[in-house]
Specification:
The protein is of the alpha/beta class. It is about 30% helix and about 15% strand.
Length: about 625
């Protein structure tokens, strides 16, 4: 049950000051220096070191800033602090009284003395871990989160062995069936530690309300209401519950074995397409620094796996922009069905179909880049090479668990065959013993491998909108504009961003949101007739696709900013940075699709929506 660990039980991250080992005696404040010299701060003693911090800060956050990592399960930077897990306990001495308190929910106070790793605290944490392990499926090698599980890592840090003779706490274990009903997400309550992260993410942040804690006491489980499974619930497959789950209770539903089986069929032509954000995150699976752009290595690895052709979904993004911009310009000129909403995110689409179907006239009818590429591979490209589409196996490499759901939608069936997330691709590359880090860069194949900078930024929040405005502004002005970057206005990690752009004397109001909780607020405004916007981008996941449910964890704000920076770097280095100037896209229109927004383009590149219900 060993796992690679950062030593979270008692070690520190790289810190400016060395943290001493637990000791019976801890230094007190110097009587001569009782307070910090900095204004509006309080001073505390943290593991024998005097620390200045802001009033109202939590002990957990202060410790982290000073290089001390306190073990935890329920805490997450984007979720409400509930102190469920009790693993982050510390000793707090105040006014001569010492108590054990949860660091994530206890605020600092002047003169407070905090000890984070004393023998008493380590024993308390060890006991909490043993209680969790006593009711946990310990078959770690078969767990999808093996070597990536926080419970496993902490058990290793605290030297808790799983041998029967050494387990102090024994008793009945809760055993429930594994829920494999969803096409995207696997739910295994036998591995759940009831930290509450997934419930808070689904209900408070995403406002989907697909899962909750049900029953009581020993029988408590996280599940959809009324005994329903995930497929019957309101789940939109966004995978944000997977991102925050610290164990193997919620994981992406893997298609790795099916892809391996397909690779072993020589009579089939295997093609892969790769989404924009994969190139900004895949390197993390191999220990490369966060934010490393690995496009060339990614393509080379896919070829080594056995894919005959590797195409770039960024081309699909460029074509998506051409169609969306065509649609937006027409709607704007006709003042019809505004605001128009982008439709690249399948989780958002299902959310809209479930909760706001009567307002979906505002959505663009354009397919996502993945679905556009799948359509073109099985039609345009198959005809071009004289291949029966049935003999082509298309594997989409995506950052998102919802993409597994998207390819199963009736209107898209028969196009893409499988979806592998970033995590799954990383596993497959490792299984095939490919030395990813030392691969020589390789280029995408043509004719579906050329893309622009606009296609690259699709992977982060605000990127779809910026790409669309770059094209729409040129068309509305009737000329090529030299100023076309809007990152200062719609970049960053605020979950709602607004800006206005003046095009040919007309003010166009734009809004960008990410997370479905923000989308719900926006749709309620539209429903009430109070929306002031003309054009809206909605992404289900925090940060956009770079924070998708199939991406490597952690997906913290800092990590997502580095991934976004990698995609922006790809954009800035491209010679062509506007979608409607992509030579390969224009050639496809000339040879096969006809005019922008033509009948053929609508047949292959657009879709319709269906009211979705759930039990």
């Amino acid at each position: 049950m060993k796992a690679k660990s950062k030593g979270l039980a008692g070690k520190t991250r790289k810190a400016k000051k060395k943290i001493s080992k637990p000791a019976a005696k801890v230094a007190k404040f110097d009587k001569k220096v009782k307070t910090c010299s900095q204004p509006q701060t309080v001073s505390i003693m943290l593991n024998e070191e005097k620390v200045c911090c802001k009033p109202g800060e939590y002990i957990f956050d202060v410790a982290l800033k000073n290089g001390i990592e306190i073990p935890h399960f329920c805490y997450h930077e984007r979720l409400e602090r509930t102190a469920h897990c009790r693993l982050c306990v510390v000793e707090v001495e105040m006014n001569g009284r010492t108590r054990i308190m949860t660091s994530c929910s206890t605020k600092v106070a002047e003169g407070m003395i905090v000890r984070t790793h004393t023998p008493k605290i380590l024993d308390a944490r060890r006991l909490n871990l043993e209680l969790l392990l006593a009711n946990h499926d310990l078959n770690c090698p078969q767990c999808p989160k093996n070597l990536r599980c926080k419970l496993q890592a902490y058990a290793s840090d605290f030297m808790i062995e799983s041998l029967k003779d050494e387990v102090r706490i024994k008793g009945k274990r809760r055993t429930v069936p594994v829920d494999n009903s969803s096409v995207s997400i696997r739910r295994d309550d036998n591995r759940c530690i009831l930290c509450g992260r997934c419930v808070k993410m689904c209900n408070d942040v995403q406002t989907v309300y697909a899962i909750s804690q049900n029953k009581r006491g020993f029988d408590t489980i996280v599940t959809p209401a009324l005994g329903h499974n995930m497929a019957e619930s309101a789940c939109v497959n966004c995978g944000q519950c997977v991102i925050v789950c610290p164990t193997g209770a919620l994981t992406e539903k893997s298609d790795v074995q099916q892809v391996i089986d397909a690779l072993n069929k020589p009579e089939k032509m295997l093609i892969a397409q790769t989404a924009p954000s994969i190139r900004a995150a895949l390197g993390e699976c191999f220990g490369m620094p966060v934010g490393t752009e690995v496009t060339g290595k990614m393509v080379a690895a896919l070829r080594k796996l056995g894919f005959e052709k590797v195409f770039d979904t960024n081309l699909g993004a460029d074509i998506c922009i051409i169609e969306e911009a065509t649609e937006f310009v027409k709607r704007l000129n006709e003042n019809r069905n505004l605001p128009m909403i982008t439709t690249c995110c399948p989780a958002w689409i299902k959310f809209g179909e479930q909760f706001f179907f009567d307002e979906l006239r505002h959505m663009s009818s354009c397919r996502s880049p993945q679905a556009i590429m799948a359509s073109l591979v099985k039609t345009y490209y198959a005809q071009k090479i004289g291949k029966d589409p049935k003999d082509i196996v298309l594997v989409d490499i995506m950052p998102c668990t919802a993409k597994k759901y998207e390819i199963m939608r009736p209107e898209f069936k028969g196009e893409a065959d499988f979806v592998l997330t970033t995590i799954e691709l990383g596993r497959l590359i490792k299984e095939m013993n490919i030395d990813f880090v030392n691969l020589q860069d390789s280029d995408f194949d043509h004719p579906l491998g050329e893309s622009t900078g606009a296609g690259a930024i699709f992977g982060h929040t605000g990127g779809v909108m910026e790409a669309a405005v770059r094209t729409a502004a040129d068309w509305l002005e009737g000329k090529k504009l030299k100023k076309f970057e809007y990152k200062k206005a719609i970049g960053g990690m605020d979950t709602k961003k607004e800006f206005s752009v003046t095009i040919k004397g007309k003010t166009v109001k734009i809004c960008v949101v990410h997370t479905l909780g923000e989308a719900r607020k926006l749709m309620e405004e539209i429903k009430a007739g109070k929306s002031p916007y003309h054009f809206i981008e909605i992404m289900a996941c925090y940060g956009g696709c770079i924070g998708g449910g199939g991406q490597p964890t952690p997906c913290t704000k800092e990590v997502l900013q580095k991934r976004a920076a990698a995609l922006n770097s790809v954009d800035s280095k491209k010679k062509i940075r506007k979608s409607h100037e992509n030579p390969s896209a224009l050639k496809i229109y000339k040879e096969y699709l006809g005019e922008f927004g033509s009948e053929q383009a609508h047949r292959l590149l657009h879709t319709t929506y269906t009211r979705k219900s759930y039990k």
